Amino acid sequence: MAEFIVTEAFGGAGEEGEIKVFEAVKAAYAGEEALGFWKYPLVTKVTVREPDILIADPELGIIVIEVKSLPLDMIGAVTGYRWELTRPYYGKQQLNPYEQARRQAQALGELAVRKSGLTQLATRATVAVPLITREAWDNRFGALLSDVPMLFADQMTPARLRRALEMTPPVRYGEPLGDEDWLSLRRALGTSGSVPKRQVRYLQAPLESRRKIDLIARTARHLHAFDLQQELIAKTIPPGPQRIRGIAGSGKTVLLAQKAANMHLRHPDWNIALVFFSRSLYDQIKFQVNHWLKQATNGEVTLETAQHRLRILHAWGSKDQPGFYRTLATQIGAEPLTVANTPDASPTAKLLFACKALLDDAKATGRSLQIFDAVLIDEGQDLVHEEAALSFEEKQAFYWMAYQSLRPVARDALLDTGEPEARRLIWAYDEAQSLNTLTIPTTRALFGEAGAQVFGAGVTYKGGIKKSEIMNRCYRTPGPVLLAAHALGMGLLREEGMLAGLTNKKDWTAIGYEVEGRFLSGSQVTLTRSPANSPNPLAQFTDEPLVTFEHYPDRRAELKALMHSIQRDLSEGGLQPSRHLLVVVPGLEWQPYNLQREVFQTLRAAGISVYLPGNKDVNVPKQKWPNTDPNGFWRDGAVTVSPVTQAKGNEADVVYVVGLDHIAAQEDSIKLRNQLFVGISRSRGWVHLSGCGMQGKTLTAEIERVIAAGDTLNFTYRQPKRQLDDVE
């Protein structure tokens, strides 16, 4: 089935011809296998700009169509590929549209071959003139027609257009693609074929090997299929706000980074901010944005050359590192607040206090915060709070500050659809990973009564770009592990009933589950997770359980077992300490830091190198400024031991969540349950849960029930304390 992606809304004044050609292409491929893009993001010195229309066809290969909506009287003469114009067209007196399309087709072909290995991939290029008929062209230019492959206004019917494309001479000769090669081409043009590949040793390990490093290597070799939703999120530029709700491991950070890079390449004059909450994500996000800039420009544009317009900003910032809040405070001449001079509270509450104060200051002085053309927010669930005192005029302070920092979108970008004033505020979140608040960042929760004005009417913009996306595929975490994470995070198998969760079949289906039963109090509900929505294949390669749980009489016994297990992973499993292994410690207030210290001491006593996030050095207890690295999370050769709050956004192949007795002591705490979910969902492979003094605890029996349930979860539905339904 043909799939077409419009990367930016078009169809305004002067673009009627472009719409005509694109709609004709879609009609010509209706019901057929094809992949099409309006403005595929590829901008190099050779291609100059993005191709107007890109078609991937299993029979014809890659086709680039350059659209020129010119009336015939504007073309004075044609010499070879060059057109002489009778009046300027966007300031030009000469055009060479076929040469531009040919270069774009050549560059796309080289890109696809490099990423897919399809050495027999054909490419074609043609020029569409939707305002000129073939007869009119012939009457004026005669035999010169043959010099440029063209599509005319009277060839816009499905049969004629397909025939014209088939008759277009190749730029690069090739062969029709078989089924596997066609899937490879789709991957090469999509996000799944361009994500930075993990470097895993022992890639030539025998298939029968059951060492963890070899199983990880086999998993890393697995090729994910083309994901249409990923392309719709990463490659589109909405003419207004957009909400992205994605489960853990769905790739929200990767897609936002790609989206920000594509925005910059399409609109290099825009000021763009990509904002995040966890400082440990800083290097990861910079790496991703740099990767996608280089990917779309053949290495010609990097974050270093783009950062005067494309800013990667921590939500708060510090004196030694620019942040979103501090940038806006400086803009209006306000003295930025620091962590030290805000009231004692959670990190989120401190930030929101500062944001509210800045909004009050801007309102009192009449100074404008508008400096950005697009703001993209990752980890959106960590930038809200339920406390009314932290809101600004019944709006969430951080989001309203971000909204106020944006310049309104030009009316022509809205295509005169009657939308209210729009601003490009794009936020991604997973409410299950919220650690400091129970507020869900829906439009209504963020903007109150102003929500309708911010988002406008309808669910899509003109051209088809959605105002809201829900991501249901989890690429990072294997299905059995994600199922356990949701079950324990929401308390689905608690004897007293679930604590939090979705309360209808539609929303469970939207995040990738198959559902049987009715959501009526006392009714039985069955959840299963399909392999299509959890494509990590590790469970297919091993009979070893991916989720285990052990409890011990005391902490010393628990940590001794942890130490022995890590030693086995390093020796027998062949794993590396850093990035393969991660130890996560949950708890409230001082609990995680005390336990982090105990784990550190136990592992160091056994000669295992340890890194504590935020430290400058390895194998030392928690360091204080200036011997710190606030962005640090990994160090080569050392096992990271982290509180849940710092682990968010990171991942490892084997995750140890220790100290579950902290959760057992308050097993009905939704915040602690969210910590448990975050800890488990950091895993790309195995999760080992442990605690001490948990004999006879209700959480102990619950965990054992979840593990015994395997890949199918049956529970008795009761109304939860916290509903996570999508209420937009």
Secondary structure topology:
Blueprint: E1 3-6, H1 16-28, E2 35-38, E3 53-57, E4 61-67, E5 75-79, E6 82-89, E7 92-95, H2 97-116, E8 123-129, H3 134-141, E9 150-152, H4 158-166, E10 170-172, H5 179-189, H6 212-221, H7 228-234, E11 242-246, H8 252-266, E12 272-276, H9 282-297, H10 303-306, E13 310-314, H11 324-331, H12 347-365, E14 374-377, E15 391-392, E16 395-396, H13 397-404, E17 424-429, H14 443-447, H15 451-455, E18 468-471, H16 479-490, E19 500-501, H17 505-510, E20 513-517, E21 524-529, H18 538-541, E22 547-552, H19 555-571, E23 581-585, H20 591-605, E24 610-611, E25 639-643, H21 644-647, E26 652-657, H22 661-664, H23 670-680, E27 683-692, H24 698-709, E28 712-716, E29 722-723
Helix pairs in contact: 1-4, 2-5, 8-9, 12-13, 16-23
Keywords: Plasmid
InterPro entries: DNA_helicase_UvrD/REP, NERD, P-loop_NTPase, UvrD-like_helicase_C
Protein name: NERD domain protein
Structure explained in plain terms:
The chain is of the alpha/beta class and 728 residues long. The protein is built from 24 helices and 29 strands. The strands form seven sheets. Strands 1, 2, 3, 4, 8, 9 and 10 form a seven-stranded mixed beta sheet that branches. Strand 6 and strand 7 form a beta hairpin. The chain is globular and about 95 Å long. The mean pLDDT is 91.
Q: How many strands in all?
A: 29
Superfamily (CATH H level) name of the largest domain: P-loop containing nucleotide triphosphate hydrolases
Major β-sheet, in short?
7 strands, mixed
CATH topology of the largest domain: Rossmann fold
Q: What count of structural domains?
A: 3
Q: Roughly what is the average pLDDT, rounded to an integer?
A: 91
CATH architecture of the largest domain: 3-Layer(aba) Sandwich
Shape: globular
Share of helical residues? 25-40%
Taking pLDDT < 50 over at least 5 consecutive residues as the criterion, the unreliable ranges are none
How far is it from the N-terminal to the C-terminal residue, by CA? 30 Å
Structural class: alpha/beta
CATH class of the largest domain: Alpha Beta
- Continuous helix count: 24
Beta-sheet strand percentage? 15-25%
Structural Rg: 28 Å
